[in-house]
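Our consortium's second objective concerns turning raw sequence data into structural hypotheses that experimental partners can test. To show how far this objective has progressed, the report includes one record in full. It was chosen at random from the queue rather than selected for favorable results. The single chain below, 194 residues long, was entered without modification.
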Amino acid sequence: MESSGNTPGKLEQLRIRISRQFQTILDKTVPLTVPRWSFAFTLYMIYWVRVWYLNGFHIITYALHIYFLNLFIAFLTPKVDPMSYDDALDEDDSDGQLPTRGGEFKPFIRRLPEFKFWCWATRATCVSFAMTFFEGFNVPVFWPILVMYFIMLFVITMKRQIRHMMKHKYVPWTSGKKKFQGKEDSGTVIDQRY
């Protein structure tokens, strides 16, 4: 009877060990942005080849792309809504917070970091690929309507997101560190080593 009591403990230990090994692999891929996205794109293309070959699973594909759109919007959206931050500036300082100025630097922090975006998009592609092996998910639909609806949804959603960016004056990407130019020095250089 003692051996049956140890079995769940050993299974739990095995699950924890596998989970740690998987997390270690994921942690090693964090700085490898281009290879990670190349891998995700390759999986996505394999999924598309399978869907094209089977000529079905349009509902699964539509759901996958709606999920990608939700991830992309979360990727573009700041973690702290600028509207609520601006409202906090208008309130009186009686709540014990430090005073802030309107020109204060506010760094852009994404609601969904790039690594999680990649991880969840890759996971969704793998799940969708696995679902193509089950005929129960192959619901017959007229796919051009789904394509038109997705395009319309994408345009409306992105239009709203771009308006939000313009209203609150934030850009969800960086172009590198700003380089400052000093004054031109027209004087001669004096070598003080001697």
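The partners drew two points from this record. The mean pLDDT is 78. The CA atoms of residues 18 and 140 lie 39 Å apart. Both points have been shared with the crystallography group to help prioritize constructs.
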